[in-house]
Specification:
alpha/beta; DNA-binding; 466 residues
Length: 466
DNA sequence: ATCGGCTCGCGCAA
DNA sequence: TGCGCGAAGCCGAT
């Protein structure tokens, strides 16, 4: 049984026809997995219809925006895993060094059809645009990283979750469906010996050969990238912590969260697969509903944001009340002013904040509730909102394994009022929502969170065994 | 512990 | 044009 891939996931990015070529190429870039990968399944079905083999190609570049040792290691672990999983299905995948668009163009030279997955950030869209114009064959993009395709959910920038929610919910029945694997009928090509291909059998060697920022430590002792690890993380969450999810998801002193955001960011797991597993878990409805709200609505709102807001990574995109009120308070005196370096080194007067910053630097993660507090305080302690915006995005993208994601840009924009409402006017923040240490203490146990972070840094331990 | 007030703009009903 | 409502807010009153 194979489910049809919903038509709305499929877009032809140029007007070219399918050519009488030798093979179908799937240019993998965003959905680095074998399971629940609509682009992969689409490419297999097209190859079978054309009676041709399929080649999967990934373009790997040292110049990837804001990447470093930490993120490259996780990426490579994921590539190694998916290459192995595809091989088990008789599908050949090569990872070739070079700018992704150039790698795709070269790989498509003898292709009948080039298929790719979808990314929403500027550089991801630019690559696909460049490739669409450069190849002779058709380039087909298949959305595989959201539940409801962005343009179908809404034709415009949404200002709040409550307006996007019904627009997504009405399509869930159609899009929250299984996607079984299709068998590839025709032999692969055995291109593995090409010297241009990267040998993934030893990741250390690949990393050593690269020019990259090594100042951000590798975290493979804590988290390894890859589809297999993502599935283990999901199973572990369902078996041990999901029962507490609705109650504890905003309690930073607990670990009752899914740990899946980094796998979602790298495309190591599909949101559709996660949602189906959650729905079928037999858990209490409040846990299921709360989780699906986070996974689908709260994840796809920032994707709507980066898709319809070209300046998603700049303070200047803010308009209307939030921009006005922050600028009205631009010259308010700041009780604390920290340099970017003091912040990065967690050298502030605030122990809760310092713990959050340390969690970020040393574990590549920060509890979601603390991400809000962390951001609000940087706004409070910076000379201008624009400066705070810059510093927050830089730290976010440097240290988080789930950084450089639409969620990163959405989360930072939220600090400055995006997707939020006006509140009682006060210094510096104006009418933008404020957060305080007293609020943290009222709602959670931040002193225990500080303890938890220090413990985690001292004794790093993976929460699920490989 | 819980509640109302603060405050804005969107989307929908009218 | 009016009205309800919102992710995590705070604050003061009860």
């Amino acid at each position: 049984m194979t489910i049809e891939i919903q038509q709305q996931r499929v877009q032809h990015l140029n007007d070219n026809d399918i050519l009488p070529g030798d093979l179908v190429v799937y240019w993998m870039q965003a959905s680095v997995r074998a399971a629940y990968n609509h682009a992969l399944e689409y490419a297999i079905r097209q190859a079978n219809l054309l009676r041709q083999p399929l080649l999967v190609v990934f373009g790997f570049t040292d110049d990837y925006p804001e990447a470093n040792l930490r993120s490259f290691a996780f990426l490579l672990e994921g590539l190694q895993d998916v290459q192995r999983l595809l091989a088990e299905r008789g599908i050949e995948m090569i990872v070739r060094r070079g700018s992704p668009d150039e790698v795709a163009i070269k790989a498509a030279r003898h292709a009948s059809l080039l298929v790719t997955d979808r990314g929403y950030l500027r550089h991801q869209r630019d690559w696909r645009h460049d490739v669409a114009g450069a190849v002779a064959c058709r380039l087909t993009q298949v959305e595989s990283d959201v539940v409801v395709p962005v343009e179908l959910a809404s034709p415009k920038l949404e200002h709040a979750a409550r307006t996007l929610r019904p627009r997504i919910t009405r399509h869930l029945e159609e899009f929250l469906v299984e996607l079984g694997p299709t068998s590839l009928k025709h032999q692969s090509l055995h291109l593995g010996d090409d010297p241009a291909n990267i040998d993934l059998s030893d990741i250390d060697t690949v990393l050593a050969s690269m020019q990259l920022d090594r100042s951000v430590s590798r975290l493979s002792h804590l988290y390894q990238g890859g589809e297999s690890q993502a599935h283990r993380a999901l199973t572990n969450f369902l078996d041990t912590r999901f029962v507490n999810y609705a109650r504890n998801r905003n309690q930073p002193q607990t670990n009752d969260v899914s740990d899946l955001s980094k796998y979602l960011h790298y495309g190591h797991i599909s949101p559709v697969e996660i949602a189906l597993r959650i729905q079928d878990s037999g858990a209490a409805n409040d846990n299921i509903d709360t989780f699906l709200e986070e996974l689908i609505i709260r994840r796809e709102l920032p994707i709507n944001f980066v898709f319809y807001q070209p300046d998603y990574d700049r303070f200047s995109h803010l308009s209307g009340w939030a921009r006005r009120t922050l600028e009205d308070h631009q010259n308010d005196p700041r009780a604390y002013l920290y340099t970017a370096q003091q912040l990065e080194h967690a050298e502030t007067h605030d122990d809760y904040w310092n713990a959050a910053m340390r969690e970020m630097v040393h574990t590549g993660y920060m509890h979601n509730y603390m991400r809000m507090y962390w951001g609000k305080k940087v706004l409070e302690w910076s000379a201008t909102p624009a400066e705070a915006y810059r510093v927050l995005l830089k730290l976010n993208n440097k240290y988080f394994l789930d950084g450089r994601d639409p969620n990163s840009y959405g989360n930072i924009a939220w600090i400055f009022g995006q997707h939020d409402r006006a509140w009682q006017e006060r210094a510096i923040f104006g009418k933008v929502r404020y957060m305080s240490a007293a609020g943290l203490e009222r709602k959670s146990r931040p002193a225990e969170y500080v303890e938890k972070v220090e413990q985690k840094i001292r004794q790093p331990k993976i929460t699920y065994s490989p």
